[in-house]
Amino acid sequence: NLTQEVDNLTKTRDVLSEKVELASVLKTENLTVQTLREKGKGKFEVSDKARRVSRIKTVFVIAENKLAKPGQRDIVLRIIKPDGYPLSDPGNGSGTFTKDDGRSSEFTLRKAINYENSREEVVFDWDQIEDLRGGLYITEVYLDGKLMGNYKFNLK
Asked: Could you read off the pLDDT of 41-55 as tens digits, one per residue?
């Protein structure tokens, strides 16, 4: 009888641990992307013409989550071109990371933050070094290898 009760408690504990782990996952809010062209002297304006875009600005908020563990976190941004490959420049901070499924993938930018269980705005600025092509671009945001959010935009 006691063995059966211990087994039931173990199963209950495992189910509750899984629920807490799911609830502690961080989420993005208000993920937006602006494609900008430089007007000179550090001033930018919005542009949807691929050949004119010189900066891709990604802004989002990490939602408050009291169940998540506070501390240092790595956020990875992937900007995927219409050909399926991410924008990448190792001299500009690009590299590879491991997704939660164990596969290695290229990223565009990485940023370390100190998460303290409260809302936090994160901004990524990707300064383009080559001309972009028209088509559908996908921006993906990862935290600890898990996809937190994505955003799609078109350039002409």
From this structure: 878 899 888 888 889
Spatial neighbors of 104 by CB under 8 A, at least 6 apart, are 96, 97, 98
Residue 151 in tokens: 């955003």
Structure tokens at 30: 């208000």
Q: Which of 31, 120, 108 has the alpha carbon at shortest distance from 77? A: 108
Q: Residue 25: is it exposed, middle or buried by C-beta count within 10 angstroms (0-12/13-18/19+)?
A: middle
Q: Contact, 20 vs 27, CB < 8 A? A: no
Mean pLDDT for 60-69 is 82
| Tens-place pLDDT, residues 80-107 | 999 989 998 888 888 889 888 888 999 9
